[in-house]
Amino acid sequence: MPGPDNNHLRSATISVLVDNESGVLARVIGLFSGRGYNIDSLTVAPVDDARGRSRINVVTSGTEMVIEQIKAQLDRLVPVHRVADLTREGPHIAREMALVKVLGTGEKRVEALRIAETFRARVVDTTTESFVFELTGATEKLDAFIDLMHPLGLAEVSRTGVAALARGIRTI
Amino acid sequence: MPAAPQHPEPLQSGAEVLLRALKDQGVEVVFGYPGGAVLPIYDAIFNQNAIRHILVRHEQAAVHAAEGYARSTGKVGVVLVTSGPGATNAVTGLLDALMDSVPVVCLTGQVPTHLIGNDAFQEADTTGITRPATKHNYLVKRSEDLARVVHEAFYIARSGRPGPVVIDLPKDILIGKAAYAGPVDTHRSYRPRTEPDPAQIARAVALLKGAKRPVIYTGGGVVNAGPDAAAALTRFVRMTGFPCTNTLMGLGAFPASDPQFLGMLGMHGTYEANLAMHGADVLLAIGARFDDRVTGRLNAFCPDARKIHIDIDPSSINKTVPVDVAVIGDAGRAIAALTAAWEADATEPDRAALAAWWRQIDLWRQKQSLRYIQDTAPSAVIKPQYAIRRLWELTQAQAKDVFITTEVGQHQMWAAQHFGFERPNRWMTSGGLGTMGYGLPAAMGVQIAHPEALVIDIAGEASILMNIQEMGTLAQYRLPVKVFILNNQYMGMIRQWQELLHGSRYSESYSNALPDFVKLAESFHATGLRAENYGQLDDVIGRMLASDRAVIADIAVDPKENCFPMIPSGAAHNEMILGVEGEGEARGITDEGLVLV
Ligand SMILES: Cc1cc2nc3c(=O)[nH]c(=O)nc-3n(C[C@H](O)[C@H](O)[C@H](O)COP(=O)(O)OP(=O)(O)OC[C@H]3O[C@@H](n4cnc5c(N)ncnc54)[C@H](O)[C@@H]3O)c2cc1C
Ligand SMILES: Cc1ncc(C[n+]2csc(CCOP(=O)(O)OP(=O)(O)O)c2C)c(N)n1
Ligand SMILES: [Mg+2]
Q1: Which terminus in chain A has less CB density within 10 A, N or C?
Q2: Which of B194, B199, B197, B205 is nearest to B340 (CA)?
Q3: B168 forms bridges with which residues in the sheet?
Q4: B409 lines ligand 2 (CB under 6 A)
């Protein structure tokens, strides 16, 4: 269809079901870097051992035309079984996990702990001068939490990238 | 070793399994070059007669030869090279085949599995290097995978949008024992769609029936779809009465002599083809990928047209040009479906509008945009266009089937403009990558596939030097390929851009210190001929065509001639520069255009 606004950027969460063979991740990543597409986050793990399949979730952004092109390019990679644009195909759930290390003592430390509670972050490691929080949720929630930790002694962040599924009965 | 129950046949070496798989794939010829890592395969080749090995002189040429073989037959071309430098030399050919959708399987040697990653002698990360240059590639790490991988590779190379597939073969896999498995014609994840969606076909026919100024624009995909698709296209175009234009890669899919043919479109396309595109109200694109050489400035491309695009590769659709109707499927099947739907639909096309459209096109044709002026004094300098015209005319008198390959540059464009192709698979050129050095090895591959045919490489004096070593291969296998050099003493295409876009600063584009091509031919056991002027041209072409040996015909042509029409990069179809009277500066070139290639 002509028409979709070709300057408007949108974000897309794309799930790709692939054969778990060597080089498949290099193919996907090479496609993005070689063709100049954005990768905002990327996760990959085996999801079906019996059939030897992995699922790659990639969050990307671009114009409608670019995102359609990304999906078509992914789909024509030989080991790819299915490409789903979760953002476009209906409501979906996207979650990531972060481990967040905050250093500090005194008032800042107390404040960090209080914020962590409101975010339902768990304390998974602690010393008298540090916390490691574990937080799961949507990307925006993790971003907000990390922003708040900045002035409170944020020292290090490790994030998983997005895992995503369609809501309801739909499957990839 | 007693045969295990699951392998009733005795196990063979990996190399033997490989050859058996090739044979079962119908492979008759392999273009290759030996090296340490592939010696087991050469051993297996030594011990059999089913598959013929053609020893090239450079691995890049092996791939181009396989491309020429593939494109002129519709079969998969096969290449065999050693590890490390053998594989890296093949990369240009692989990318060329990828860009032009040519089915090739390339077998590369690799160091034994236990040495991979150790910087072993002649080790290269071949799957890493060739990943973006192939449709798919494999590293075989287990003997039991070997036969399956070979069959899969052939299936992938030829199915859907064809392309090159590399199989990297560690030496221990070639030596170790392996079980054999027969060919398969399916794949667990790669299943391209070939059958078009009837609903989209119906929408396409509705648009076409209502068209007042239609154009059918077809490309290499129709050639890929096979001669039947080209025949179906010809019937469809004649049935509709619509004008038809071809891309560089699509030439021959519709007969050049047909009155409905507008010639090639794009950067060096005809005036009528490009203005028809610009003025069209409905565009039917079949197996063509809206390349930048075709579209010119995108925001001025076919500004008034509703667009229908038929392509087997969904990623070709809406890639650069958004279309109104997308038909995913094989060009041959889609054209058949279109034809049936057109006939079944009772709506009458707008014949009056179509007649007016043809009157307009005929006015554009009167520009004679391919015109050139040849002085006919015997001592006159030969115009390159005239040399191609004469070559074409004189080959028509031959009883033989004629195949043309080219190098890259002005001569390539003049060949496209002035040599009329009536049938598909007779025209082999490097379009997408534009690889100088393609034409001679490609011609070699064509001649191997068609020993009785007349095979001519239309070359430039600069390009031909890029794979000139293949003259040795021609000699060894007595391949009577003709090399027809339009010798303008310049990298003419570069010189033309410098003249038109860079203030005539001819930086490094002069072909200095050229060899004596006649002596060069002779030193390679071929015939060398030279035409200096108009008076000598016919005689040289005649002697070349009459010879049953390889020939280099060195044709001295006007060094200053430019290739027109030309749509400068970044310009629109209606901002074309014409030759003869329009010659001069390039109008409409913006700074934005200048950054484009
Ligand atoms: C110096 C130079 C100048 C050039 N100038 C021009 C010019 O003036 N005009 C011009 O046209 N080109 C020109 N080219 C060539 C240009 O760069 C492109 O290679 C060419 O335009 C692409 O042709 P195509 O669109 O037919 O696509 P191809 O590259 O042939 O691609 C084929 C398309 O068909 C599809 N396809 C494949 N198989 C099938 C099937 N079975 N069924 C349906 N679809 C299928 C593929 O998915 C693809 O989209 C020039 C090249 C050079 C080197
Ligand atoms: C391998 C390679 N290197 C560089 C180029 C850029 N290039 C395109 S045309 C051309 C000049 C070709 O000269 P010649 O073969 O004499 O052909 P002419 O244009 O004179 O007909 C060059 C250098 C290319 N296409 N391929
Ligand atoms: Mg030249």
Answers
A1: N
A2: B205
A3: B108, B139
A4: yes
Partners of residue B30 on adjacent β-strands: B53
**pLDDT above 70 as % of chain B:** 97
Residues of B within 8 A of A19 (CB-CB) are 188-189
Reported confidence tier of residue B9, pLDDT bands at 50, 70, 90 = confident
Rg (CA), chain B: 25
| B563 Cα–ligand 3 center, Å | 12
A22, A68, A81 member nearest B318 (Cβ): A68
Query: Taking ligand 3, which is a single-atom ion, which protein residues have CB atoms under 5 Å away?
Result: B 460-461, 488, 492
Contact A3/B at CB under 8 A? yes
Q: Is B351 buried (19+), middle (13-18) or exposed (0-12) by CB count in 10 A?
A: exposed
> What confidence score (pLDDT) does residue B579 get?
85
**B323 touches A at CB < 8 Å:** yes
Q: Which residues pair with A103 in a beta bridge?
A: A130
Cα angle for residues B484, B480, B473 (degrees, 5° grid): 95
pLDDT the model gives residue B595: 80
CB of residue B436 inside a 6 A radius of ligand 2? yes
Q: Which ligand is nearest to the CA of B253?
A: 1
Dist. CA B219–CA B310, nearest whole Å: 10
Which of B31, B76, B83, B37 is closest to B57 using CA atoms? B31
Cα end-to-end span (Å), chain B? 62
Q: What is the mean pLDDT of residues A120-147?
A: 98
Selecting among B16, B152, B154, B171, the annotated active-site residue is B171
Q: Which of B315, B323, B324 should one mutate to test binding to chain A, selecting the residue with the greatest count of A CBs within 10 A? A: B315
3-state secondary structure of B340: helix
- CB-based contact A78 B189, cutoff 8 Å: yes
Closest Cα of chain A to B428: distance in Å? 26
A56: alpha, beta or left? (left if phi > 0; alpha if psi -120 to 50) = beta
Predicted confidence (pLDDT) per residue in B375-392, tens digit: 999 999 999 999 999 999
Of B540, B418, B528, nearest in space to B464 by CA: B528
Which residues on chain B are in Cβ contact (under 8 Å) with A73?
315
Active site (annotated) includes residue B59: yes
Three-class secondary structure of residue B261 per DSSP:
strand
Q: Return the biggest CA–CA distance within chain A.
A: 61
B318 at the A interface (CB within 8 A)? yes
φ/ψ region of B117 (left if φ > 0, alpha if ψ in -120 to 50, else beta) reads left
DSSP code at position A121:
P
Residue of B100, B194, B195, B224 to test ligand 1 pocket, by largest number of atoms within 8 Å of CB: B224
Q: Are B92 and B67 in contact (CB under 8 A)?
A: no
Q: Which two tokens stand for residue B393?
A: 């005319």
Of the CA atoms within 13 Å of residue B323, those in its CB half-sphere come to 28
Q: How is residue B103 written in tokens?
A: 């089915």
Q: What is the DSSP letter of B15?
A: H
Give the Cα separation of B403 and B592 in Å (integer).
Answer: 39
B493 noted as active-site residue: yes
Under 8 Å between Cβ of B93 and B62: yes
- Mutational test site, ligand 1, from B249, B265, B323, B328, max ligand atoms within 8 Å of CB: B249
3-state class (DSSP) for residue B444? helix
Signed CA dihedral, B235, B240, B245, B248: sign only: negative
Of A154, A13, A31, A19, nearest to A96 by C-alpha is A13
Q: What pLDDT is recorded for position B586?
A: 55
* Residues facing residue B329 across a β-bridge: none
Catalytic residue at B121? yes
- Please report the pLDDT score of residue B156 as a whole number: 98
